[in-house]
Amino acid sequence: MKKHIKIKQITRLTAIKNIAESYLDTMTIKERDSHILNWWPLDESTPNFLGFSTKLQKLILDNEEPPKNIEGSLADELILAGLKSSYIGVTNDYLAEQLAELGYGTYAIQGDIEHLNTCPCCEYRTLSTISDYDICELCMWEDDGTAAPESYSHPNHMTLSTAKKQFIEKKENLPLNKWVKAS
């Protein structure tokens, strides 16, 4: 008799929320402070801003730099926004793996993967913008707009062709299932 494993369904947003909350619980003070500093320069034009509580919005608008002792729940709210944003564009399979590793069990993730732009080096969809100096989390190429294989990219200190060769050499040790491969 074959044993059936019941796979639970979960939405993409719920999966990301669960993963982010799990990581929040394990962060050191230094990691928390780093997240707050990275996310602080926000204003009303920032997409996530309107999703924040009124109290956090006011705190951000009234302070150019983060106050030394941000109330715990406000800090958590800001850090969670940063953690959640790091899962934009990742595959549903990757989210399912993360949930399993965190002890949530086996899930099938439901929902469309957010569209990201293709990195010119690794050719995976990892960049929120094109030619805007975003750094690919997979191959670490800084997208300065270099498109010609033999053109030197100053931020990357090499040509695109050299970076592609380095990526091919390292790719077996990278989380290729995390992002969508451009077709």
**Overall average residue pLDDT:** 92
Query: Could you list the spans in which at least 5 consecutive residues all have pLDDT below 50?
Result: none
Total strands: the figure is: 7
Distance between the termini: 41 Å
Number of domains: 2
The share of residues in extended strands comes to 5-15%
Helix content: 25-40%
Rg result:
19 Å
Could you give the order of strands across the largest sheet?
Answer: 3-4-7
What does the oligomeric state look like here?
single chain
In this structure, how is the largest beta sheet organized? 3 strands, antiparallel
Helix tally? 6
Inertia-based shape:
globular
Query: Which class of secondary structure composition applies to the elements?
Result: alpha+beta
H/E element string?
EHHHHHEEEEEHE
List the defining traits of the structure above:
183 residues; 38% helix; two-stranded parallel sheet; 2 domains; alpha+beta
Describe this structure in words.
By secondary structure, the protein is an alpha+beta fold. The protein has two domains: 1-114, no CATH class; 117-181, no CATH class. The chain is built from six helices and seven strands, in the order βαααααβββββαβ. It has a three-stranded antiparallel sheet with strand order 3-4-7, with no helix packed on it. A hairpin with a 5-residue loop joins β3 and β4 (124-127). α1 (12-26) crosses α4 and α1 packs across α5. The protein is globular and about 50 Å long.
Q: What secondary-structure arrangement, pairings included, does this model have?
A:
Blueprint: E1 8-11, H1 12-26, H2 29-39, H3 54-62, H4 72-85, H5 92-101, E2 107-110, E3 117-118, E4 124-127, E5 152-153, E6 158-159, H6 160-170, E7 180-181
Parallel strand pairs: 1-2
Antiparallel strand pairs: 3-4, 4-7, 5-6
Helix pairs in contact: 1-4, 1-5, 2-4
